[in-house]
UniProtKB/TrEMBL annotation:
This protein's name: Cyclopropane-fatty-acyl-phospholipid synthase family protein
GO biological process entries: methylation
Keyword Secreted: no
Keyword Endoplasmic reticulum among record annotations: no
Pfam families for the chain: CMAS
Keywords, alphabetical: Lipid metabolism, Methyltransferase, S-adenosyl-L-methionine, Transferase
Protein's organism: Streptomyces litchfieldiae
Region described as Disordered: spans on this chain: 108-135
GO molecular function: methyltransferase activity
Family: Belongs to the CFA/CMAS family.
Domain of life: Bacteria
Polyketide synthase-like methyltransferase domain: residues covered: 149-390
PANTHER family in the cross-refs: CYCLOPROPANE-FATTY-ACYL-PHOSPHOLIPID SYNTHASE (PTHR43667)
Enzyme nomenclature, EC number: 2.1.1.-
Length: 435
C-alpha cells in the first residue's frame, strides 16, 4: 500500500482533524488537498526520529536534516500546522500504542536505531543555568555562525531586532535606522554623555548614537565574532575616540555611572532566575536621573506560570537557555530594583514585518547561505524566522520598549512634561551632529 495515505491517517489521528495540507511520501505517493503547500516526507528516517522523540523536537530534527520539507508557501503551511501540533490532543494509551505500531511499520520492519541529532543541535550543556560560562556558550551557539551569514539575512544595517515601520518606509535599512533613532530620542541622548549598550551585537546602536548624537558609547557582547565585526565598523567610521566594544558580561561591567543604557533584544537571554540580578546591575550602573531603554520580546501570561516551558525547537537549535516573560513581570522587576517605569510601547506588528524581510533575504540568497553555514543551519533560520513572524502576527508573542529612569533624590521630574516628546525629531538635541 502507498505510504502517503497511511501516513496521512496517522497525522489526522494525532491532530484530531483532517489533514490541512497535501502530503507526499518518499515513495512518491501523495494525498490530501490538491491546492496549497505540500508537506514532503523525504525519508523514513523522519519517522524514526518521531518514534524516539515524539512531538516538536522529533519534527525539528527531521526538518533540520532535510528529511521533512515544505514545497510552496511556507507561511501557509505553518499557519495551519503549528497550532494543532503545539496544542496536541489527549490520545488514549491504547490508541497511542496502535499509532506507534503503525509508525514503526512505516519506519522499518524491526525496531530502528535512533538517528543521531543533526550537528546543528545544541549538545551537552555544562554548568548551572545562566552561569556566565554557560551563557557564553549559548550566545556563541547562536551568534558565532559567521558574520557573512548574518549580513545576508539582516542586510547592511546588521541590526538583529525589530525595525520601526511606517507607510513611508523605503526598505529594511531605513526601518532599522528609524528604530535606532527612536531609542536615542527616548534616551534623550546629548553630546558627550556616556551610553552603555548591553548586548551590542554588531555595534549598530553605539555607532548610530555616536555618529548622530555625539555620545561616548560602550558596547558589550559575549560573542567574539560580533565584537570583531563591530570593532571593524568603528574603525572604518573613525569613531575609536567615542566607541569602545568589549567582550564582557553585564555582570562584569563595573565602570559606571552611565548617563543612559540601552538593552535591545538581549534580556531574553537573561533568564527568570537571573532577571532581578540583571535589573539591579543596570540600576547600579546608571546615574540618578539616567534613562534605561529595555527592548524585549514578551510572551502572553499563563494561568499557571509554573507550566511555562521553552519551545523545544528554539531551545535546541536557536536560543539555548533563552526564556520569555510577560511584559508585566518585566515592569514589576524593574520597579523592584528601584526604577521608575515611564513608558511602555508595543512594537509587535513591526517585528512580524521585520522577520518577513529577513526570511525574504535568506530565501533570495539561499545558495550563498548554505555555502556559508551548511544546509542544516540555513533551514533552522528559515523555519525559526517564518514561525516567529506568524507568532507575532497572531499575538502569541510581542515585543516592547520599556523606558525607565533611575529617580533623583529630590523626586524631581527627569523627563519632559509633554508625553512622548521623542516622537518628534531631535535636531535641537544634537541629531546629525557627526553625520
Amino acid at each position: 500500500m502507498a505510504v502517503a495515505p497511511r501516513l496521512a491517517a496517522l497525522v489526522e489521528q494525532s491532530l484530531g482533524m483532517p489533514l490541512p495540507v497535501r502530503l507526499r511520501a518518499w515513495d512518491g505517493s501523495e494525498t490530501g488537498p490538491p491546492d496549497g503547500p505540500v508537506l514532503v516526507v523525504r525519508h523514513r528516517r523522519a519517522l524514526r526520529r518521531l518514534l524516539f522523540k515524539p512531538g516538536e523536537l522529533g519534527l525539528a530534527r527531521a526538518w533540520v536534516a532535510g528529511e521533512l520539507d515544505v514545497e510552496g508557501d511556507l507561511y501557509a503551511a505553518l499557519r495551519v500546522l503549528l497550532e494543532p501540533i503545539q496544542s496536541g490532543r489527549p490520545v488514549p494509551a491504547r490508541e497511542k500504542l496502535a499509532m506507534g505500531r503503525e509508525l514503526l511499520r512505516l519506519a522499518g520492519r524491526s525496531l530502528p536505531v535512533p538517528p543521531p541529532p543533526p550537528r546543528e543541535e545544541v549538545r551537552r550543556r555544562t554548568g548551572p543555568l545562566h552561569s556566565q560560562r554557560r551563557d557564553r556558550a549559548a550566545i556563541s551557539h547562536h551568534y558565532d555562525v559567521g558574520n557573512e551569514f548574518y549580513e545576508l539575512v539582516l542586510g547592511p544595517s546588521m541590526v538583529y531586532s525589530c525595525a520601526l515601520w511606517s507607510p513611508d518606509t523605503g526598505d529594511l535599512a531605513e526601518a532599522q535606522a528609524a528604530k535606532l533613532d527612536l531609542i536615542c530620542r527616548k534616551l534623550g541622548l546629548r553630546p558627550d554623555q556616556r551610553l552603555l549598550d548591553v548586548g551590542c551585537g554588531w555595534g549598530s546602536m553605539v555607532l548610530h548614537a555616536a555618529r548622530h548624537y555625539g555620545v561616548r558609547a560602550v558596547g558589550i557582547t559575549l560573542s567574539e565574532e560580533q565584537a570583531a565585526h563591530a570593532r571593524e565598523r568603528v574603525a572604518k567610521e573613525h569613531l575609536e575616540d567615542r566607541v569602545e566594544i568589549r567582550v564582557q558580561d553585564y555582570r562584569e561591567t563595573a565602570d559606571g555611572p552611565f548617563d543612559a543604557i540601552s538593552s535591545i533584544g538581549m534580556a531574553e537571554h537573561v533568564g527568570a532566575a537571573r532577571y532581578r540580578e540583571y535589573t539591579d546591575r543596570l540600576f547600579a550602573l546608571l546615574r540618578p536621573g539616567g534613562r534605561l531603554l529595555n527592548h524585549q520580546i514578551a510572551r502572553r501570561p499563563l494561568p499557571d506560570e509554573k507550566s511555562y516551558r521553552v519551545d523545544p525547537f528554539i531551545d535546541a537549535y536557536v536560543f539555548p537557555d533563552g526564556e520569555l516573560a510577560p511584559v508585566g513581570r518585566t515592569v514589576s522587576l524593574l520597579e523592584r530594583s528601584g526604577f521608575e517605569v515611564r513608558d511602555v510601547e508595543s512594537l509587535r506588528e513591526h517585528y512580524a514585518l521585520t522577520l518577513r524581510q529577513w526570511v525574504a533575504n535568506l530565501e533570495r540568497n539561499w545558495a550563498e547561505a548554505v555555502r556559508l553555514t551548511g544546509p542544516g543551519r540555513a533551514r533552522v533560520w528559515r523555519l525559526y524566522m517564518a514561525a516567529s513572524a506568524l507568532a507575532f502576527e497572531r499575538g502569541g508573542i510581542g515585543v516592547n520598549q520599556i523606558l525607565a529612569v533611575r529617580p533623583v533624590a529630590t523626586g524631581a521630574s527627569v523627563l519632559p512634561l509633554r508625553p512622548r516628546a521623542w516622537v518628534e525629531t531631535a535636531d535641537d538635541r544634537g541629531h546629525e551632529l557627526r553625520a
